[in-house]
Amino acid sequence: MQSEFAVELRDVVKQFVTPEGNLLNAVDHVTMQIKNGEFFSMLGSSGCGKTTSLRMIAGFEWPTEGEVYIEGKPMGHTPPFQRKVNTVFQNYALFQHMTVYQNVAFGLEMEGADKNEIEKRVKRALEMVQLTGMERRKPRQLSGGQQQRVAVARALVKLPDVLLLDEPLGALDLKLRKEMQLELKALQQELGITFIYVTHDQEEALTMSDRIAVMSKGKVMQMGTPVEIYERPANRFVADFIGESNFLEGKIKSVSADEASVFVPALNAELSGVPMSKDFVNGEEVVISIRPEKIRIVDADAEKDGVFRAKVINSIYIGSDTHVFLDCNGVRLKVMEQNHISRLDPHSFYHKDQAVGVYLIPENTLVLKKEA
Amino acid sequence: MLQRLRENKAWQGTLLALPTTLWLFVLLVIPLFLTLVVSFGRRSPDGGVIYGFSFHNYLRLIGYSTNCPAGQSACFDPLYAQILWRSLTLAFWTTVIVILLAYPLAYFIARSHPRRRNTFLMLVLVPLWTNFVIRVYAWMMLLREQGVINGVLGWIAAQFGLPFQPLQMLYTPGAVLVGMVYEFLPFMILPIFTSLEKIELPLYEAAADLGANPFRTFLRVTLPLSMPGVVAGTILVFIPVMGTFIVSDLLGGKQVILVGNLIQNQFLSARDPTFGSAASLILMIMTLIVTYFYTRKFGFGEEIITA
Ligand SMILES: Nc1ncnc2c1ncn2[C@@H]1O[C@H](COP(=O)(O)OP(=O)(O)OP(=O)(O)O)[C@@H](O)[C@H]1O
Ligand SMILES: [Mg+2]
Prior knowledge:
Helix content of chain A: 10-25%
CATH topology of chain B: MetI-like fold
Bound molecules: adenosine-5'-triphosphate, magnesium ion
Low-confidence stretches of chain B: 303-307
CATH superfamily of the largest domain in chain A: P-loop containing nucleotide triphosphate hydrolases
Shape of chain B: flat
Number of helices of chain B: 14
Low-confidence stretches of chain A: none
CATH class of chain B: Mainly Alpha
Structural class of chain B: mainly alpha
Number of strands of chain B: 4
Strand content of chain B: under 5%
Largest sheet of chain B: 2 strands, antiparallel
CATH architecture of chain B: Orthogonal Bundle
Number of strands of chain A: 20
Order of helices and strands of chain B: HHEEHEEHHHHHHHHHHH
Radius of gyration of chain B: 25 Å
Helix content of chain B: over 70%
Distance between the termini of chain A: 41 Å
Structural class of chain A: alpha+beta
Number of domains of chain A: 2
CATH superfamily of chain B: MetI-like
Oligomer: heterodimer
Distance between the termini of chain B: 39 Å
Mean pLDDT of chain B: 90
């Protein structure tokens, strides 16, 4: 029976004894369901347990508690060589004593495929990653990007149900990384294989993934599509970690089905029609999260609901955008404005102490719990 | 002059290579040349050298003899050829056995917990702090007719009321083999350990990930990647075993004579430096030929040496 989920983690805990003798939950009660054919990313800062989670799926580590399911089957202590998943390792882990061809053929030989079959499939795999003609080279004789492709070909040639990738592009320079991102994504769509992709680069995760799990300290903070993660962060941590956010403290005045009215003392005003994704109660202390690119700077004397007076602290020109830092009744706000038009006159930019109005559009903000 | 030195790369190279060249010349080329010259000479009655150009000594080594039954002026005497052959086979088997013993040991040490690893390495090295000759003497103590091993065996036999005839272990080829293996084991363990230790953990994981069970991982990944260590160890063991004479002298007595003993004998008791020189050169050539073909097949283990 084909399971709906390629991989499932049910309430998985992985505990390590650190060299200092403490117990550490590297992965702390994690539950994830990864659908067949999905491009799924685990995103989080260093040490949050991404690699450990991936290693438990591959079979290099066993959960202390909970269970990993692959294609609906509990894995228990199944060793890696009996799991239908393959890994692209962070530093590739290519066999230096073998040629590119031998590296890619290795996994097929272990399956006992016959020589013709191996030749055919290796050839196709190398075509896929555009390494035709490099068969006889040793890994040492390849550039970083080419080695990375060998690692991908070596894993993909086995036609796994699931491909695990642990920061596969981490060692490449920015330009090559962007190229490889597109290539990997195209490859995944072409083959329809489930990819589980570990990265600490949020842009990479947002660009490539169907769904993302944002992790912190061994826990999943939010799981969702890139749009959900960015536009509807589930909590203050995610709002802060993915992209940037301004936070305004406030108190719930009234709630409807999916909107709230919030009184913000700093502005001495009530914002109504603020979207919310959790249940809040009247009188609850909350924060309102506002993305910098969603705030508009308007004339200082504009009279309109949702416009507040502010003063420019400073502004930074970064080519495509201008970042403006404002003081709004003691609250510091960051605003990003796109430079739609070409301007050369320095006086046409914002300058210190300039009085402006900020327009906070309630539907572009979000109510979140106060604590992270 | 200084000006020229500063500008001329070739001059700089020559100057930098000078000390090494000088050193090699004094310590290698001159002695070798003298040995070559002497080996073509003849022994004088008082044990000196009569210089000349004759292959007499070399012919003797491959079986030509003038010390013949009455009526023959020349005949075949395989004595020296046998000694050469014995040295070669003994060195071969010593190396094979040392590899078989050293590999699992090195593997065990390389895979042990880092904290215990140093202790194990120390244990491998400790015997080397004792003098080579003294270690061979220790084996004499063990293997003698009234030695430790026979003593223990005799005691066990006595417990069961069995008759016991002490085993003749000392002065046998077996004793020499055991001694050689013992003496040269560390020189195989260390390079193999070094090459095993350098294999990164993710490689084993990659092999497992691609479907290799532990046994096939060993054959396809561990073994090939540790070959440089085996090659380096082989060179470190095979060459000295070919030339050593102390082990065979003490543990083999008159029963197990090797080229090393032959050479030592010719220079000291037999007082024929010309024949001794010829034997030395033959030993060197034999060793070179074997090493040449071996390294041509497997390389020099350079990854270890340059590590
Ligand atoms: N074998 C181990 N023994 C003890 N602690 C470990 C072990 N492996 C990982 N840890 C700890 O578990 C935590 C999670 O590690 P993990 O490698 O999963 O992080 P990560 O999210 O992959 O980080 P990075 O982005 O830096 O690779 C870290 O605090 C790490 O120190
Ligand atoms: Mg990691």
